[in-house]
Specification:
Number of helices of chain A: 13
Oligomer: homodimer
Radius of gyration of chain A: 27 Å
Distance between the termini of chain A: 57 Å
Shape of chain A: elongated
Strand content of chain A: 15-25%
Structural class of chain A: alpha+beta
Strand order of the largest sheet of chain A: 7-3-10-9-8
Number of strands of chain A: 10
Helix content of chain A: 40-55%
Largest interface: A-B, 33 and 33 residues
Largest sheet of chain A: 5 strands, antiparallel
Chain lengths: 342, 342
DNA sequence: TGTTAGCACTCTTTTAAATCGAGTGCTAAC
DNA sequence: GTTAGCACTCGATTTAAAAGAGTGCTAACA
């Protein structure tokens, strides 16, 4: 059996209709819904074919059909219009100057959730590839030093270093100078272990304290940025019966959003691909508890190559068209926005 | 009509029972439940009295009674045992060294939610009364300075200051010295406007840039710590039919927890009172959408007078006894914990 | 006078049965 | 290849009946 144009049209009509209503759709509906001018009987025949081919499913005898994951996949891959939507409200709100990146991200994700009515998330742009601008060690008291690391884009990182014996001002100055000359301009990735050993040698570090400090600084530099995730609209999950009927699953989902744990999984695949926007239908995503959801992610990029991800999570009968459109324009708008702000 | 001991016992029995089952409780149940050895008929008479007095409510004719807000209040105020519960698991988990205050708080709130099965929140200890340890201004590039502010307890705050013209090293050194001599040891509250003006004068700030910098630093110092709130267990709301049946309200509640917005309201009253643990029943709390909930908050205090709040939000038929016990021991345990960690 | 047994009454919940209705598959005719 | 028609299926809705929980009231009892 082969997918011909008519079958595709019918499949599309079924999915479109199901997206709207959430109810299984029957042959009569399609007969009227499309402009193919076919009777319900004919549609029935085609639907039987489509079912055999695995694109649609019958929840029980004498119910209409609903799309299978395969059906959604076909729809997303081949039939979605890639129209660029208006995002007037979105733009307007985002244009208002927001001081901090954090606030901006929170604003964006909130807006996205409100606009799409799905649970949404956004990650802060990763800065691990950013170059190091400068490092500063300062003395807090006899037992503590403060390390401040400034990266490109003026992203700042602090760490308090415990020291076992006091360090005098002169040593500190020397250390500062050395660290800056050696490390500034490098990306986090480039700073390797051998480099650190080199630094220690250069510092003539027979004294344990200096070695200690260098280790701590190295650790501070290479420490995993914990991926900051902002979420909004988890409560939208309750709006879709197919997700909220099983209240245990729904609770689990909501919890995932509240705690922001495990959401990285959603995003990780998204970075390396060449496609900017990805759609995961049903069990295509590997996060436990999200088998009944679809996930759409988009990567965005700010100046300086900082990349982050925006995503939305909703029921499989998601308005893919709208979501993809929204993410598309949002994605391209974010960079402009950030430039304006900074 | 007056509340005598027997009525109180019966009221207590009603409430206890209702807390467990969530169902209206009838006279026969109480007759067996208490050791008063009274027949259901007698209990019925007493219940009629209690209803007249406003402590219990009959949802509809021929249903049992449920406690009114007034009933809960009476229960909480007079009848709750203040036993100190075991928190073995809690202590054990918390004892595991956790590096950051943030992680600790997240751990605590998660544990609390798990233990009580209610939605939980915790605020980071407020540091506005902490003394300033030192300030450091550094040059990032020609347009940006970095302000690092270290407070007691090694709490660090950063701010990037935009400057309109470059500042040379010498000026920076001078500024650093001045800021530190003048400001260190003071609390955030003590640093007033007049002080800032004084600083500017002292800096001989005819040059606009210096004045600019001082302003920015002052702003950075006095900027409201945004109250960090950590939450967990919002999904527990779904476990209580009286909260989750109205899915709109439930969604609103969950959203409040996810966004962590408006939760401050819950907490604000808690700080100034003398009572460490407070119970708000039903509409006693002023957060919109939480009329059907009860809220229990406890303030905790870390070394150095840093205060924060722990709270739980649940249905009115909350296990007040357990919750208060848990919060009590948690509250007293937090300081020890923090000391060990730091 | 306080307590209790008993009973009629009320109202919700549960259960069962009946009916409805959307949708199908198949057949036969166009 | 398309369509009308029809018998059939099976979940959903409606309806009715029964069950159950609990009350208020009255009258009897200690």
């Amino acid at each position: 059996m082969e997918m011909d144009e008519r079958k595709a049209t019918i499949l599309q009509a079924i999915i479109r209709n199901y997206l709207e209503t959430g109810e299984p759709v029957g042959s009569r509906t399609i007969s009227k819904y499309t402009d193919l001018n076919l009777s319900s009987a004919t549609i029935r025949n085609e639907m039987a074919d489509l079912e055999e081919m695995g694109y649609i499913i019958q929840p029980h005898t004498s119910a209409g059909r609903i799309p299978s994951d395969k059906g959604y996949r076909f729809y997303v891959d081949t039939m979605m219009e890639a129209k660029d939507r208006e995002i007037s409200e979105m733009k307007k709100v985002l244009m208002e100057r927001q001081d901090k990146l954090e606030d901006m991200l929170k604003g964006v994700v909130k807006l996205l959730a409100k606009d799409t009515q799905y649970a949404s998330l956004i990650t802060a742009p990763s800065v691990s590839r950013n170059k190091l601008k400068f490092i500063q060690l300062s003395r807090i008291d006899d037992e503590h030093l403060l390390t401040v690391i400034v990266k490109e884009g003026n992203v700042i990182k602090n760490k308090v270093v415990d020291i076992t014996e006091p360090v005098n001002e002169e040593t500190l100055l020397k250390l500062n100078l050395m660290l800056n000359t050696q490390l500034s301009g490098m990306t986090m990735d480039e700073i390797s272990l051998s480099m650190i050993t080199g630094l220690k040698a250069q510092a003539g570090s027979h004294s344990g304290v200096i070695s200690e400090v260098i280790d701590a600084v190295a650790e501070a530099i290479s420490a995993e940025e914990d991926l900051k995730v902002y979420t909004s609209g988890a409560n939208n999950i309750l709006k879709y019966p197919e997700l909220s009927d099983n209240s245990e699953k729904a609770g689990h989902l909501i919890n995932t959003f509240e705690e922001r744990e495990g959401l990285e999984e959603l995003i990780i695949g998204g970075e390396d691909g060449d496609e900017a926007i990805k759609v995961y239908i049903g069990s295509e995503n590997k996060v436990s508890g999200m088998e009944d959801c679809s996930v759409v992610t988009a990567t965005y990029e700010l100046e300086g190559g900082m990349k982050g991800t925006i995503g939305i999570v909703g029921p499989k009968r998601m308005d893919y068209d709208k979501v993809v459109g929204t993410l598309k324009s949002l994605r391209s708008g974010l960079d402009d926005l950030y430039k304006k702000d900074n």
